[in-house]
Design a protein that fits this description.
single chain, mainly alpha, two-stranded parallel sheet, 6 strands, elongated
């Protein structure tokens, strides 16, 4: 929160504006969390990120309105007149960015993981509430509260003017250079692999992580696969042929490099056989007759202390057994490879039995893989809906389609960068594309909105309209992007990997999006939209 305050005070240079934004943020967060709790949503480590994201998005909405308002006041406008003009210019782009951001977060409902669905719903509601407050409560506060600004005849916007001149002059080089850069970075996307390690979700500062690391180094680890093998016959587990196959399965499991221990009922049968033959080592083998196996099992169960039984290894009617294989800490890819080998072996050797393999780690591995596919569908749905909204809002199919280029490329470039610096795409990163589509649209919408206003209202050429867009909205864009990046960088410091990875990846995507909106979007507009307004 202190970082946001510092950024707002430096950029807005107004205590009243900063206070009003903080007031609006608090209202937005409380309202969104309250509605979430009323709807029965419970806060989890993932959905608990919602307040930070709402805070970030609310600041971005307010900054555009306030920068234009303070700009008008510094030019000598009355407070009410300055706010009316700011609302007139910014209402549509703020509404569009809020709606597209909400759609992006609502696409998280395609996720298989309920915490991500909860996060998306809370943030979407919070963003819409922040929009309503930024066009109602914020203008009222700024009109009623005292606002002091220094009157200037000509505002110093030389930085944006120089950037605009550079982009207009070098538009062909920027168009070709950024296209090549985007293609090069996106070529590194295959370096990423779907990989999750449940234990590594937690930082080493967390007691659970230190305990599991110690257990993995000194005992058998917490990863396991439990295999249920059912004969379909009551008492069928006493059949020597069945026990022999279970023993073969156990030996095959020990041959796998990832397996460190196997718990099987066959060990109990072999030990009982040895016990009943005077502890002679040569009798440490499976009984050769079904009735002998059944008698050993009955004798063993009757000798167990009160309250103990074998129901954790065999079922009630003794038709099936459970084999538990403990493993080292494995990634998603390694876990799915173990499962594939397991099923291949069982299809050949256990075809006459009913087999089921399960474990929490296996479940997470499949969820991570399925989540990627589901989130791609969600991202495409969000993209189509956002495209339709932009085409209708800009009243131009060309501008609507042009706006998609700088909206899609940043996510691809960010994943290329991620492939170079890390390459592990887990459950947290699988939702980044859907989430950031709505966010990165914001800068594009504001830039194209000002560009279109210059062409329609002022009749300017494409080059002049680009210069106008830079001078009117350039400062607001880098301020809001700085706020967004700062907010998600804060999430990247989380000790929970799912949050920190998502925060860092989103920050990279937003930073790339700002660069593309400043250096790639204007050359595209000047190349494809040459007709004078």
């Amino acid at each position: 929160m202190h970082g946001y305050l510092l950024v707002l005070i430096i950029c807005l240079r107004s205590f009243t504006a900063t206070f009003s934004v903080i007031f609006l943020i608090i209202f937005s967060i409380i309202s969104a969390l309250g509605l979430g709790i009323y709807a029965g949503i419970k806060l989890t480590p993932t959905s608990a990120m919602a307040p930070t994201i709402i805070l970030t998005m609310a600041v971005a909405d307010c900054v555009h309105l306030l920068i234009t308002f303070l700009h008008n006041m510094r030019l000598g406008h009355e407070k009410k007149q300055a706010m009316q003009e700011s609302l007139r210019i910014n209402f549509q782009p703020i509404m569009l960015t809020s709606v597209t951001t909400a759609i992006g977060f609502l696409s998280l409902n395609f996720s298989d993981a309920p915490p991500f669905r909860d996060l998306g719903n809370i943030v979407a509601v919070g963003v819409l509430i922040a929009f309503l407050l930024s066009v109602t409560l914020l203008p009222a506060l700024m009109t009623l509260l005292p606002v002091r600004v220094k009157i200037k005849q000509e505002l110093d916007n030389s930085g944006m003017q120089r950037l605009a001149s550079f982009v207009i002059k070098r538009r062909k080089a920027l168009l070709i250079g950024n296209s090549i850069l985007a293609l090069v970075l996106m070529s590194f996307i295959p370096l990423n692999e779907i990989n999750d390690e449940f234990v590594k979700y937690f930082d080493e500062s967390i007691e659970f992580r230190r305990a599991t690391d110690f257990m993995n180094d000194n005992l058998s680890g917490i990863y396991n696969v439990e295999v249920s093998i059912d004969t379909g016959e009551s008492g069928g587990i006493s059949e020597p042929a069945f026990l022999t196959k279970i023993e073969q399965f156990k030996e095959w499991l020990y041959e796998q490099p990832e397996i460190v221990h196997v718990n099987s009922i066959t060990d109990t049968f072999k030990r009982l056989n040895k016990n009943m033959h005077g502890e002679q080592q040569e009798w440490y083998k499976l009984p050769e007759k079904r009735d002998l196996s059944a008698q050993y099992l009955l004798l063993y169960e009757m000798s167990l202390p009160y309250g103990l039984d074998l129901n954790d290894q065999i079922n009630i009617d003794k038709s099936g057994v459970r084999v538990i294989a403990s493993m080292e800490n494995l990634s998603t890819k390694q876990m799915l490879d173990v499962e594939r080998r397991l099923h291949n072996w069982m299809d050949v050797n256990f075809s006459e039995y009913t087999i089921n393999a399960a474990s929490p780690v296996l479940m997470f591995s499949h969820i991570g893989q399925r989540n990627i596919i589901r989130m791609l569908i969600g991202s495409l749905a969000a993209l189509v809906l956002i495209s339709i909204i932009l085409i209708v809002a800009f009243r131009s199919v060309k501008l609507g389609l042009i706006s998609l280029i700088p909206n899609l490329i940043p996510a691809g470039m960010a994943f290329g960068i991620w492939g170079l610096i890390d390459g592990q795409v887990g459950l947290g990163l699988s939702v980044v594309t859907g989430m950031t589509i709505g966010i990165v649209v914001d800068d594009t919408v504001h830039f194209i909105s000002k560009y279109r206003r210059a062409k329609v209202e002022k009749g300017l050429s494409s080059e002049e309209a680009v210069r106008y867009a830079f001078s009117t909205v350039g400062v607001a864009l880098w301020v809001t992007s700085l706020v967004l990046v700062s907010g998600f960088v804060v999430l990247s410091t989380s000790s929970f990997l799912m949050n920190s990875g998502m925060g860092l990846m989103t920050a990279i995507t937003i930073a790339v999006a700002l660069t593309m909106d400043f250096l790639f979007l204007p050359p595209i507009l000047m190349t494809l939209d040459k007709k004078r307004g």
